[in-house]
Amino acid sequence: MANVSVFNMEGKEVGTIELNDAVFGVEVNEHLVHMAVVQQLANNRQGTQKAKTRSEVSGGGRKPWRQKGTGHARQGSIRAPQWKGGGVVFAPVPRDYSFKLNKKEKRAALKSVLSDKVSNGKLVVLDELKLDEIKTKKFTEVMKNLKVESGLVVIAENNENVVLSARNVADVNTALVNTINVYDVINAKTLVLTKDAVKKIEEVYA
Questions:
Q1: Taking a C-beta distance cutoff of 8 angstroms, is the pair 165, 132 a contact?
Q2: Over the stretch 87-144, which tens digit does the pLDDT of each residue have?
Q3: Exposure b/e, 58-67, CB count within 10 A at least 16 = b
Q4: Is the separation of the CB atoms in 162 and 131 below 8 Å?
Q5: Model pTM score
Q6: What gap in Å lies between CA 132 and CA 1, rounded to an integer?
Q7: C-beta of residue 147 within 8 angstroms of C-beta of residue 11
Q8: Going from the N-terminus, what domains does the chain have, and what CATH number goes with each?
């Protein structure tokens, strides 16, 4: 099991924590990580793109000129695709881009990115994160003490003071243990977990 240093809000090391290899020490499965990211991005797509085919564009009910004898190519409608204002040949229609990923695959993908953060030294464990008031300046100081310029802060339980204090901090997001996902973790340069969050993650995913 990997031992990781635990820091307080002042950025001083106050101890170590042993991470469960079943969650933070698995072999990285790049294929599952890729699938999890693709799934999340696909599920977020609105799928509302729409263009009209030649049958949906208004006008063009009359043949523009007679079939023969004009010197022009034969035409049946001014709303055919080759005409200005005509319909689109294979027009996009609203569709659902979402697809399903098995629970075990999702869990394995999340374990993979968590393990990757540990192996690359991009995981910071915080003793506790408590703010007496909603203060962006105070939250920024904590991140500065931990030398975190960009990252994801994961807390065990909803803390309004922490969440609202972090809301206006550029490049730093917050999340609860039950809302973390592969895309957010992999995009975070540094992953900050509170000790309580580590325990909860191990309980859920071990």
A1: no
A2: 999 999 999 999 999 999 999 999 999 999 999 999 999 998 888 889 999 999 999 9
A3: eebeeeeeee
A4: yes
A5: 0.81
A6: 35
A7: yes
A8: 3-45+101-205 (3.40.1370.10), 50-93 (no CATH)
